[in-house]
Structure formats: structure tokens, C-alpha cells
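Researcher: I'd like a structural prediction for the single chain below. Treat it as a standalone chain; there are no partners to consider.
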Amino acid sequence: MPETRRDVDSLLPLTPTVFHVLLAVAGEPRHGYAIMQEVNERSDGRVGIGPGTLYGAIRRMVEAGLLAEADPPSGDDDPRRRYYRLTDLGRAAMGAEVERLKKLVAHGEAAVRKA
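Model: Treating it as a single chain, here is the predicted structure.
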């Protein structure tokens, strides 16, 4: 089994917070507040991640190799902001979680049809 596959498998299932953060930075690097806004918007206001939860999750995700710090975009002159981007391992973990959730939804749909 390739090393990356084994690494990804050991991370699953992802917590909802981790999955939402990965989705939020998949398109472009974002700073913490922008991640919170993206999660809130993407979930139609149903999911809110507070600063303590977010920054703890980001720290663990960086340590696990799912995220890495990114250079701020040109024009952002606020030195307090830290931007984060998806790593290759983060993208692989996000994809594996999507596949896991698809299978779970398929089982759920089948169970609903039987009920």
C-alpha cells in the first residue's frame, strides 16, 4: 500500500471541523477569519466554528501535514494574518472523506427506501 494512502487512511474519518476547514481552503489560501466566514456561508449558517476551535484545529492540521502556511496575497498588509493552504496530503484526505461520505449516504438512502 503506498505511503500516502496509508497516511490518509489513518486520518479517517475526518471530524466535521477538519472537513469544513479543508473545504474552505481548497480553492485558495485563507486566513482564520476568512475560513470561519467560508464555513458559515457554505453551510448556510448552520455550522459555525469559533476562534478557539478553529485555531486549535488549524494547529493540529498543520502538525498532521494537512495544511501549510501560505504567503499572503499581494495587497494584504496585515501582519497579524496567517494564511493557510491545502497540502497534497490534505487534498488526498479530503477526497478520501468525500468518498467515505458518498458510501455512507448511499447506505442511508437504501435504508430510507426500505423503511
